[in-house]
């Protein structure tokens, strides 16, 4: 993949149906808040499974950008563009907890976090999750 510009921009307002799950133009999606871990998931899932909508900037957007983008870069992904909310397609019958369980990195507690391993765990988990759907 070459960049975040491949992710579809949907100019519509999502409707929240349950905790973190929204409907957007007939799609059932998981909202991915603007943090490094969840946007790494967006990057790994790719533009076939993730859409974005325009979003207002946070008052501390420069600080948010610094933390989010440094996380992404350390994990081997490019910095994400600002000013968007991100959403992951949820296959039928898949709950948000299923997503987080599938992509979780099972490292030892207290050990240093290797973000490339986190990314690899996400890739494996998403592949298994979408293959079963």
Structure notes:
This protein is α+β, with helices and mostly antiparallel strands and 133 residues long. Helix content is 38%, strand content 20%. The protein has four helices and six strands; from the N terminus they run E-E-E-E-H-E-H-E-H-H. Strands 1-5-6-4-3-2 form a six-stranded mixed sheet. Helix 1 (36-45) packs across helix 2 (61-74), helix 1 crosses helix 4 and helix 3 (96-103) packs across helix 4. The longest helix is centred in the C-terminal third of the chain and has 18 residues, at 115-132. It is globular. The two termini are 23 Å apart.
Q: Terminal Cα separation, in Å?
A: 23 Å
In DSSP terms, counting alpha (H) and pi (I) runs of 4 or more, how many helices?
A: 4
Q: Which segments are poorly predicted (pLDDT under 50) over 5 or more consecutive residues?
A: none
**Subunit arrangement of the protein:** single chain
Q: Give the biggest beta sheet.
A: 6 strands, mixed
Number of strand elements? 6
The SS-based structural class is: alpha+beta
DSSP strand (E) fraction? 15-25%
Percentage of residues assigned to helices: 25-40%
State mean pLDDT (0 to 100 scale).
Answer: 90
Shape: globular
Order of helices and strands: EEEEHEHEHH
Calculate Rg over CA atoms: 14 Å
State the strand order across the main sheet. Answer: 1-5-6-4-3-2
């Amino acid at each position: 993949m070459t960049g975040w510009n491949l992710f579809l921009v949907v100019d519509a307002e999502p409707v929240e149906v349950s905790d973190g799950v929204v409907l957007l133009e007939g799609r059932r999606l998981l909202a991915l808040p603007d943090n490094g871990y969840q946007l790494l998931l967006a990057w790994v899932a790719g533009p076939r499974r993730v859409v974005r909508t325009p979003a207002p900037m946070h008052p501390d957007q420069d600080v948010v950008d610094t933390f989010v983008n440094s996380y992404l870069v350390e994990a081997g992904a490019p910095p994400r563009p600002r000013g968007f909310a991100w959403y992951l397609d949820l296959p039928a019958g898949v709950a948000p907890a299923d997503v987080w369980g599938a992509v979780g990195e099972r490292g030892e507690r207290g050990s240093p976090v290797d973000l490339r391993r986190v990314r690899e765990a996400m890739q494996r988990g998403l592949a298994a999750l979408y293959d079963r759907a």
